[in-house]
Write a sequence for this structure.
């Protein structure tokens, strides 16, 4: 099932292609009891990130649910506040991540913050698919910021 939800997150992410640069394309799916209760994607540069849009689109309270996201949630302030803060505040109990964000401003910090707040984190579901979806972004970050 984890792979199915991550595939859906990737489908959503691809809707943002061409609109989020220089940011990555990201999709998020919130699941409770094998039902999708919220979905979102990063629609446009400077706009809400996928995780926030998934919360805004949720059909019920997300507390205790699992979130699937193709890229590690951000943990720094940019044009928007850190997504990890919203995840913690909303009471998500588990986050399944496709691939780590190599941006030095994130690079594992998002996962660390989630775990420090008692949230279970799984990394690497459909990792190659998630990596290839953001291949240009990941190469740019490693070359420019790494």
């Amino acid at each position: 099932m984890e792979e199915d939800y991550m595939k859906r997150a990737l489908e959503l992410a691809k809707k943002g292609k061409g609109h989020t640069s220089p940011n990555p394309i990201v999709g998020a799916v919130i699941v409770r009891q094998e039902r999708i209760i919220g979905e979102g994607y990063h629609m446009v540069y400077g706009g809400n990130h996928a995780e926030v849009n998934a919360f805004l689109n949720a059909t019920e309270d997300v507390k205790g649910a699992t979130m699937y996201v193709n890229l590690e949630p951000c943990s720094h302030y940019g044009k928007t506040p850190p997504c990890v803060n919203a995840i913690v505040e909303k009471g998500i109990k588990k986050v399944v991540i496709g691939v780590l964000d190599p941006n030095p401003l994130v690079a594992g910090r998002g996962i660390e913050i989630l775990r420090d707040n008692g949230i279970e984190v799984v990394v690497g579901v459909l990792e190659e698919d998630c990596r290839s979806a953001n291949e240009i972004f990941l190469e740019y970050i490693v070359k420019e910021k790494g």
Summary: The beta strands are 27-32, 35-41, 66-71, 94-99, 120-123. The radius of gyration is 14 Å. The CA atoms of residues 109 and 132 lie 22 Å apart.
